[in-house]
Design goal:
The protein is built from seven helices and two strands; from the N terminus they run ααββααααα. By secondary structure, it is mainly α. It folds into two domains: 111 residues, no CATH class; 48 residues, no CATH class.
């Protein structure tokens, strides 16, 4: 087996692990985040690099958002109620859960008030998880599979594996992570 083929196989396994972890943590309402997980493998000189990508909002699903960073506040001059992307996203969330019209709008604003008080994930969202976790899907997926992947690479090629989570994602944890 060629090293590049092994890296593609490894990336497929990590992609599968990320999707499974999202499902286990209860982040599967529409499947959009899971479906967005893609990767690319590139070769330059003596180096092979595999990079995984997903929708930007996956960062917030992974690390959470502190209550004070929730983009929702009561009133304010010049504000149009319900027109923010955050509120529109919550309305869409509740529509996927079967609500419509005023019921979805009301549930969205109630959820925004809870997020503004508790942050994301909220305590109530833990009812959707099978693992007891609602944060850290990237780290959890990697931790579950990394030892097997490292062993396979060492056995087949005697090569070492370096795994890095993008520094940008790591730095967001300090800003957005729930305590």
């Amino acid at each position: 087996m060629e090293l590049k083929s092994l890296l593609v196989e490894t990336m497929l396994e990590l992609q599968s692990a990320l999707r499974e972890e999202l499902r286990l943590q209860g982040h599967e309402l529409t499947g959009k985040l899971s479906d967005s997980i893609v990767f690319e493998v590139s070769a330059t000189g003596n180096e092979l690099v595999g990079q995984m990508y997903f929708e930007d909002y996956g960062v917030y699903v992974n690390v959470g958002v502190l209550a004070q960073n929730i983009p929702f506040g009561r009133g304010g001059k010049g504000r149009k109620g319900g027109t923010s992307q955050y509120i529109q996203g919550l309305i869409e969330f509740w529509e996927h859960r079967g609500l419509s019209g005023r019921d979805a709008i009301g549930a969205a604003f109630a959820t925004a008030h809870i997020h503004a008080r508790e942050g994301m994930p909220s305590r109530g969202s833990y009812q959707y998880t099978q693992t007891g976790e609602r944060l850290g899907f990237v780290q959890d997926a990697v931790e579950r599979r990394i030892a097997d992947i490292e062993n396979t690479i060492m056995e087949k090629f005697g090569a070492s594996l370096t795994f890095e989570i993008n520094r940008a994602v790591s730095s967001l944890e300090n800003v957005f992570a729930a305590p």
